[in-house]
Structure formats: structure tokens, C-alpha cells
Design a protein that fits this description.
about 220 residues; mainly alpha; two-stranded antiparallel ribbon; 6 helices; 2 strands; transferase
Length: about 220
């Protein structure tokens, strides 16, 4: 019994789905046959393959689908224009040969040249292969860019957190500066008051000292 996968689709799974489906389109098969073939390869149901194709993969391969349809049309036209397998007669009547010679009619007038070009088919198929490879490389590049974007977003979140932390530290520093500045001004005011009080005290001490003067006889007298 085949185990049905339930995991997510990978880019390689999408590429296999695209290659098989395009081959069936190119060869004139049905998409259901393609989905069944892909389901057997990937261990998935045909319905899951069809849903994946219509919902996600198909839009990435619109150009390749048009190329595959054109190849299918050319293939059908080539089959219609393919020469019949009727055997040519081994002997001819002399009168028939004379008649055909006189009128210059070609012996195989009913044979048509195929319109379909094998070289054109090969070139178109190579174009599809290149397109699929480019799509695979593009998918890898998109995944890489998504990973880089996630890393940049994480880095941006970290930088924002650091910025917020630095803003908080700056606010604390400004607050501390304001407090220190106010304390400094208060200290200056206290020192200024102390200096003024010291000057006043010195003046009072000078006024409190006794004063003397000399009289006419040369004696010192205290002046109150």
C-alpha cells in the first residue's frame, strides 16, 4: 500500500509536477494522466497534485504552457500531413508513362511535404528545459532573499531594542544632570551666604575694638 504524503511541497516537487504536466500537454495527453503520474512518483494523490498545479504552480509556467500547446498543435498537424504508406506500382503502362512524360506530371503528386520541423521541436523543447531550470534557480534565489529578509528584520528589531535602551539611559543621564545642576546651584548659594556672613562678622569685630587718641600732653586716651 502506497503511503500518501501529507508534508509540504518542495521546489523539487513543484518542478517534477511542472515537467510531467508540460510533457503531457505537449504530447496530447490529459492533465489527469499527468497528475496520476506525478502522484505515483511523489507518493501523493492525483487530487493533491491537481490542486497544487492549479493553485500555485500553473501561474509560474504560463509561458511554458503556451509553448507546449504550440508543440502539440504542430505535432497533430505533422501527423495529418504525414505521407501515406501506399506502395508504389512496380510496373507502369507505356501509355501512362508516355502520358505522364508528355504532360510533365510528377509521379508522386499526392505526396505532401510535412510542415512540422523536427529541429523546431527540438529547439522549443530546449527552450522549455531552460525555462524550467531558470524557474528552479529563481525559486532558490527567492528562498535565499526571503532568508536574508528575515535576518534583516531580526537585525532591525535588535537595533530598535538597543535604541530604546540607549534612549532610556540618555533620559536617566539628563535627569541626573538636572539634579546635580540644582545641587550645585544650591551649594553656590550657601557658599555665597556664608561668605557674606563672614564679611559682616569681620566688620563687627573691627567696630568692637577700642580706639585711642593722643592728647596735648602726649598721653593716649580711649575713645568710646
Amino acid at each position: 500500500m502506497t503511503v500518501v504524503r501529507q508534508d509540504a511541497w518542495t521546489p523539487d516537487d513543484d518542478l517534477i509536477l511542472a515537467e510531467v504536466t508540460l510533457r503531457h500537454i505537449r504530447e496530447g495527453g490529459t492533465q489527469l494522466e499527468a497528475f496520476e503520474e506525478v502522484g505515483e512518483k511523489l507518493g501523493r494523490t492525483a487530487a493533491a497534485c491537481g490542486f497544487r498545479w492549479n493553485s500555485c504552480v500553473r501561474k509560474k509556467y504560463e509561458a511554458a504552457i503556451q509553448i507546449a500547446k504550440a508543440q502539440r498543435k504542430q505535432r497533430k498537424q505533422a501527423q495529418r500531413n504525414r505521407p501515406s504508406s501506399r506502395a508504389l506500382p512496380t510496373s507502369y503502362d507505356e501509355s501512362a508513362m508516355t502520358s505522364s512524360t508528355d504532360h510533365h506530371e510528377p509521379i508522386m503528386s499526392d505526396v505532401s511535404i510535412p510542415v512540422y520541423s523536427e529541429l523546431e521541436e527540438e529547439l522549443s523543447f530546449d527552450a522549455v528545459i531552460r525555462f524550467l531550470k531558470n524557474q528552479k534557480n529563481l525559486s532558490k534565489r527567492i528562498k535565499q532573499m526571503e532568508k536574508e529578509l528575515e535576518e534583516k528584520e531580526e537585525e532591525l528589531v535588535q537595533l530598535r531594542q538597543e535604541n530604546n535602551q540607549m534612549n532610556k539611559q540618555l533620559n536617566h543621564a539628563l535627569t541626573d544632570y538636572q539634579v546635580v545642576n540644582e545641587d550645585y546651584r544650591t551649594l553656590i548659594q550657601i557658599m555665597d551666604r556664608a561668605r557674606k556672613m563672614a564679611l559682616l562678622t569681620d566688620d563687627e569685630d573691627l567696630d568692637a575694638k577700642p580706639k585711642f587718641k593722643m592728647d596735648a600732653n602726649g598721653n593716649l586716651e580711649r575713645v568710646d
